[in-house]
Structure formats: structure tokens, C-alpha cells
Amino acid sequence: MTFQSTDTYVATSDLSLAVNAAITLQRPLLIKGEPGTGKTLLAEELARSLQTRLITWHIKSTTKAQQGLYEYDAVSRLRDSQLGVEGVNDVRNYLRKGKLWEAFESGERVVLLIDEIDKADIEFPNDLLQELDRMEFYVYETDETIRARHRPIIVITSNNEKELPDAFLRRCFFHYIVFPDAATLEKIIAVHYPDIDKALVDEALAMFFQLRDLPNIKKKPSTSELIDWLKLLLADRIPASALRERDPGKAIPPLYGALIKNEQDVQLLERLAFMHRRQSR
Amino acid sequence: MLIGLFNAVRAAGVPVSLRELLDLHGALKAHVAFADQEDFYELTRLIWVKDERHYDRFDQAFGAWWQGVASQPLTPGAVIPEDWLRRDFMRQLSDEEKAAIEKLGGLDALMEAFRQRLAEQKERHAGGNKWIGTGGSSPFGSGGFHPEGIRVGQGGNRSAVKVWDKRQFRGLADDAELGVRNLQMALRRLRRFARHGAQEEFDLGGTIDATARDAGLLNVKMRPERRNAIKVLLLLDIGGSMDDHVNACEQLFTAARGEFKRLTHYYFHNCVYERLWQGDGGTYSNSISTMEVLRTHPPDTRLIFVGDAAMAPYEITHTGGSVEHNNPEPGGIWLQRLAAKFPRLAWLNPMPQDSWNYTVSNRLITEILGPRMFELTPNGIELAMRELVR
């Protein structure tokens, strides 16, 4: 059972090798890459192609490692005890299972996505070492150890906002998603819009790479933004010729809002267009 | 087993440990990659390299190692009967290609010529029209234009050797190369700075939780307020005299980048003038006007200079005193402007403190900025952070 490009996701050969190696050797796979290159999507597609469940654990700056294991809801228990509710004696009724517990006790092998691990506190990855390594953890309240019945396939994404500790990295396989080249991008577009006009794609790609190559641009547009932009172009029925008309005085592409997310970048483009106009005069 | 590669990669400065070596063997045993050099390269990189900043160094080490392996006297012709190869080879060709081979005097002649060239050629080659290599019009090699050519090396859509020869990760390697983790001390100082500046606040959720755990007895919890929102502007000197301190600066920079959400950094050469640089290229296109930096950062931004403050005094005091260009205003004016806009600032100096008084420029800067220069050591950073949160 190997992972390859699906009809909705284009995986380069090194990416599928990385995924397959991680599955075979049962290691967590750490994925980095520019925002918008399909890191989170990978886990979804992986679960789909393995026909299994995807459990997603979104990490926020306030997330604690313990929350992925379980939380003890003492407040409910106190209230229940005052009301005399049935079952208050058993602490098990007040343990809220976290995503890891959920993945561990699943009856089949699931895909567990730990999304944007770099958002959490700097100690967060260290707190998960044992759990990821041995796939087990200890529940103090009930004095029992939870073990994974089937080792889940773990995909971890990071946007590089924080350095991850070495001990954690040692336990992972690491893959960096390179920004796709024009040929791969064309494949990706074909997957999303099978019957798009070839001329439009060519023009759009040329413009897109031109934008990415601009010096000083704050946020380079990425794959997902390209896809959104094409969607808009299609919806507005903008013909390829409108893009082809490379009048330097109109350096701003139509519907640029989908591509450029920063007003300073828009200003940069306007300034460039202005300079072109002045030169050509 | 692969110890040569292991040592080569370690020597190149990629932190690989025994565990990863064993992992690679495990993966090879599981046949994740088998008899395909490109897969092997990708697999090794997947397991051994944990940071994209190390990709470039890995590529170089791997390339050098691979050249050594590839030059082992193990030509396929010596081991596998040549007829088999040839039959397989001919099967892959279209009729047109077969006709083209005939044009060159048949497959035998072509193979013979190939063998001769290979024997004559001693080095890797790219371009040109005779030698075996990449991108040329010789009949031998890959990525070329000669219609009757032999493609040396296989693989999907690219030539195998090229993958690591491309060195596409070079750009990722040069921003910072030392792991921050070993700079724990400085990191902790910076972190305290980031969480500092606020009183303890009442932790409602924690109190309720603790109270419930105590079966209803009130148990008040306090916690420090999180203040990671501090904005930091880092100005780094990359003038010539700073070359000796590159390591220390990189470590500080990497630690700071991990710690502060809003960290911007610019480079200057010796002294601050009307433009600052965003990369270390020093070209106009990646520079930004200092005025714009002043304008776009709010006054509560913490300004940290990193530099040895060793320059000619006239770089600070005189118009046109810069060593690189004719500056319309002296550096001192720009320092004053920055100090006026950002009252919370500190200067970190990688030189030991007792040497500071020997340079005139150092005294001049202290006059302009006040006694806010600190050593670039964990202790000095702590003092600087105290200065910045005051």
C-alpha cells in the first residue's frame, strides 16, 4: 500500500517516498514548507487514499501537550457530586479524551495530523517525546497506561516560527516541500480545474512567477493563492488575452486581491507600474 | 555500511546521530528505496536531515560521496552479459531512434565510441559537444540536444546526478546555521524579556479547576501575564570588522527570531545611514529607506543594535564620512533620530567590554545613545533586556 498522487492532490516523487518511508518505519513525518504548499492537505489526502479516518489536532499558542492526551474535568465532577448525580464515584466519567487518546484507542490505523506545531509553546514538543516514541501515556487519575492499539500514522506540520528541539527532531522524518516548478504547478492546476483553457494557464503562470520573483515582495503568492486566483479568473470569464496584454503600465494583474495579501505589496506594484510609465514617456 | 557517507555528512556539519544511521538501515532493509540512486538520495535526506537549512550542506557532501561510489570499477558491462543490456536497450527505442542509431554506424559503433570517450574523460563535464556530461550536444550525456545520444543515468524526469548538483537549497542555508537550542542561556534571558513587563494576573480557569480538585475548598491561582507581543527591531552591523563575530550574531539572531513574534531585522554597514539592507547583498534593490523604518515601527518597539561600534569617528560625525558612499547626513544624526523615535534601545557589542574605551567611535556612540551598550554574552544580554523593559 503506497501513497501516490491522487486525482485531487499532486505529490512529487520525493514527497511520496517520504510518506511511504514514514508509514513503513512507523515514524512521525514532519512537514515544512512555504505557507500554501499543501502541508495540511497532505494529511487529508493520505487518510483518503488509505481509506482511514483523519484525526486533526490544531495547535494554538495556548495548547498544552496534556490536552492532546486527556483533561480531567474536576469542575463537572464537583457539581455532579453536589447534585448527587449517578456515576460521580468513577473518575473515568470525568476524563475528557484528547486527540492522541482518540487516535490510540481507535480500532484501525488512523492518520493523526498535528497541525502547526510551531505555534505552541517552546516546550510543547518535548512534552510529547515519550508519547510519540512509545505510543503510550500514563493516566494519573486512573493509574493506567494507554497504549496505541494500532500505531497511528502521524503527520506534523510546521511553519518554522519556532525552532524544534533536537530530541524531538531525532524521532521524526523530515521533509521540506519545495515550491513547485512550473511543470508541477500545471499538473496541480489540471487536478483542480481539469478543463481550464491551456492558454489562460500559461499566461497566468507566467504572471504568477513574475510576481514571485519581484524583489522586496512581502508575502510571495503560493500554490493555494494561485488556485484561488484561477478560480476567480474563471468565474469572471477573464480571457487569456487580458493577461497577455503585458502593458507594463498595468503591472497589477486583474483580481489581484486573491494573489497579493499585503497592501504594501500592492503599493510596490503600483510604484513599479508608475516607473514603467515614466520611463516609456 | 554507509559509514563513509555518514562521516562525510557529519563532517559537512549536518547533525546526524547513530539513531538516524540505524533508521536508514532499517528503511533500506524494508526496501523503501531499492537500487535507485535518486530514491536513495531522497530517503537519506528524509531520515538524516531535520532542517531545510542543512539541505545544501547535505547535497554537497552527498555529491562528493556519490562521485567516489560511482567511480568504483563496477561497470555494468563487466558484471552483466552485455547482450542482455543491449537487447533491453533496443527494446526501449522507437523505430525512428533505431534508424538514427544506424545513422551513426549502428549500436556497436555507438557503444564503442561511448566506451572510448568514457575512458578518455577524467572529470565531470557539462556543456560542450564532445565529452559525456550534461546539457551539451555530444551524443552522450543527459539533458542535451543530440538526437542520436545515449542518456547516461536514469530516473524519472530529471537526471539523477543533477538533483543534488542543483543545490536548490543554497538560499535556505545562509540565514543562520547554528541551532538555537545550544544557546539556551540567551534564549531564556530573551524569553523572560518577552514575558516580562506585566503584573501577575488572576487565573480564573486555574482557580476554578484547583478549587474543584480540592472538592470545593477555595484555591486561588495566579499566573504571569503572557506578553509575547513585544515588537523588536534588530539592526545588525555586517561591516568588515564584524566578520569575526558572525557566529555569535547568528546565534543571537536565531534565538531572537524564535522568541519574538514581531521581529524585524535590517543590516547596516559600520554605521546607520539613510538606507538599511534586508539581505546581506548590499545592493540597492534589497535596501529600505531608514525613514520608512522609522515611520512604520511604533515608538514602543524595542530597538537592538548589534555591532562592534568600531569605525572611523568621521563616519559618525561628518557628512560624506561613510566608507561606502557619499552620505548626505552624518551617521550620528541617524542614530539620534532612531534614539528619539525608539526610547527603549540597547546596543549589543560582541567585543569584550574592557576594550571599548580604546575606540573613539565607541565613546561617540555612547554619547549619543547614553550608557546603553552591553556585551554580547548571556550576562550582557540579561542586562540589556533589563534596560529594554524599564
Beta-strand fraction estimate of chain B = 5-15%
Q: Per the principal axes of the C-alpha atoms, what is the gross shape of chain A?
A: elongated
Largest sheet of chain B: 5 strands, parallel
Cross-sheet strand order for the largest sheet of chain B: 6-5-9-10-11
Helix content of chain B: 40-55%
**Structural class assignment of chain B:** alpha/beta
Can you count the beta strands of chain A?
9
Tell me the fraction of residues in β-strands of chain A, as a range: 5-15%
Biggest pleated-sheet summary of chain A: 5 strands, parallel
Q: H/E order of the elements of chain A?
A: HEHEHEHEHEHHEEEHEHHHHH
Number of strands of chain B: 11
For the largest interface in this structure, which chains are involved and how many residues does each contribute?
A-B, 36 and 45 residues
Detailed description of the structure:
The complex is a heterodimer of chains A (281) and B (390). Chain A has 281 residues and is of the alpha/beta class. The model of chain A has no long low-confidence stretch (mean pLDDT 84). Chain A contains 13 helices and 9 strands. Chain B is an alpha/beta fold and 390 residues long. At the A-B interface, helix 1, helix 4, helix 8 and strand 9 of A face helix 2, helix 3 and helix 12 of B.
Describe the SSE topology.
The complex is a heterodimer of chains A (281) and B (390).
Chain A: H1 13-25, E1 29-33, H2 39-49, E2 54-58, H3 65-69, E3 70-72, H4 74-83, E4 95-97, H5 99-104, E5 111-115, H6 124-127, H7 129-134, E6 136-139, E7 144-147, E8 153-158, H8 166-170, E9 173-177, H9 182-192, H10 198-213, H11 223-235, H12 240-244, H13 263-280
Parallel strand pairs in A: 1-8, 1-9, 2-5, 5-8
Antiparallel strand pairs in A: 3-4, 6-7
Helix pairs in contact in A: 9-10
Chain B: H1 3-11, H2 18-29, H3 37-48, H4 55-70, H5 76-79, H6 82-92, H7 95-103, H8 106-120, E1 133-134, E2 141-142, H9 160-165, H10 170-173, H11 184-195, E3 200-202, H12 204-213, E4 222-224, E5 231-237, H13 246-259, E6 262-268, E7 275-277, E8 287-289, H14 290-296, E9 302-306, H15 313-317, H16 331-341, E10 345-349, H17 360-369, E11 373-375, H18 378-389
Parallel strand pairs in B: 1-2, 5-6, 5-9, 9-10, 10-11
Antiparallel strand pairs in B: 3-4, 7-8
Helix pairs in contact in B: 1-4, 2-3, 11-13, 11-18
